[in-house]
Design brief:
Number of helices of chain B: 0
Radius of gyration of chain B: 13 Å
Shape of chain B: globular
Helix content of chain A: under 10%
Strand content of chain A: over 45%
Distance between the termini of chain A: 41 Å
Largest sheet of chain B: 7 strands, mixed
Oligomer: heterodimer
Structural class of chain B: mainly beta
Distance between the termini of chain B: 36 Å
Shape of chain A: globular
Number of strands of chain A: 12
Order of helices and strands of chain B: EEEEEEEEEEE
Chain lengths: ~110, ~110
């Protein structure tokens, strides 16, 4: 079975400051990893994904994440945040060899302080 | 990117009513999913489908049912709504080994 842990339920950050949202996973097999963003009253939008290859993955809106197999982590980073980044961020994992269902973390609410 | 639609976006209904949440996608993706999300919580998979005439229960037990008669359509039905069904319901679709794409969600309130 797979699981995802997002250690921070809420992260307040000043505008233009850097941010890191933490994600750890557990799995007995290789995994695909995803970060999704959910703006208020909307569905989920894919930020970035790791399937294989380079461990540093770049996504939309200036976000990037690094896959660290030894630490089973997939932390999301942005060097300078904007007000428009205020949203809920979900880390998710799927098993590429199975039925490819997504298992989500509990989410991190990112609040940007002007 | 997939175009995936959900209707209604918001629904307030009384206990005991039958409701159907619609989900449609225009990309011809075989796999479709329904997730339930309570406010401030993670998403839980309640149903999924590999294709026409295929439906499976997800990780979270749900009193809802689904059908998949056409590739593009994956409706979710509650025969008798209860306050405990109040939640947000998100539909998603994907092609083989591709990313899951989500609809905008339906917020359901059962009084």
């Amino acid at each position: 079975a797979q699981s995802v842990t997002q250690l921070d339920s809420q992260v307040p950050v000043f505008e233009e400051a850097p941010v890191e949202l933490r994600c750890n996973y557990s799995s007995s097999v290789s995994v695909y990893l995803f970060w999704y963003v959910q703006y208020p009253n909307q569905g989920l939008q894919l930020l970035l994904k790791y399937l294989s290859g380079s461990t540093l993955v770049k996504g939309i809106n200036g976000f990037e994440a690094e896959f660290n197999k030894s630490q089973t982590s997939f932390h999301l980073r942005k060097p300078s945040v904007h007000i428009s980044d205020t949203a809920e961020y979900f880390c998710a994992v799927s098993d590429p060899g199975g039925n490819e269902k997504l298992t989500f973390g509990t989410g991190t609410r990112l609040t940007i302080i002007p | 990117e997939a175009d995936i639609y959900q209707t209604p976006r918001y629904l307030v209904i009384g206990t005991g009513k039958k409701i159907t949440l619609e989900c449609s996608q225009t990309m011809g993706h075989d796999k479709m999913y329904w997730y339930q999300q309570d406010p401030g919580m993670e998403l839980h998979l309640i149903h999924y489908s590999y294709g026409v005439n295929s439906t499976e229960k997800g990780d979270l037990s749900s009193e809802s049912t689904v059908s998949r008669i056409r590739t593009e359509h994956f409706p979710l039905t509650l025969e008798s709504a209860r306050p405990s069904h109040t939640s947000q319901y998100l539909c998603a679709c994907r092609a083989y080994q591709e990313t899951q794409y989500f609809g905008p969600g339906t917020r359901l309130l059962v009084l």
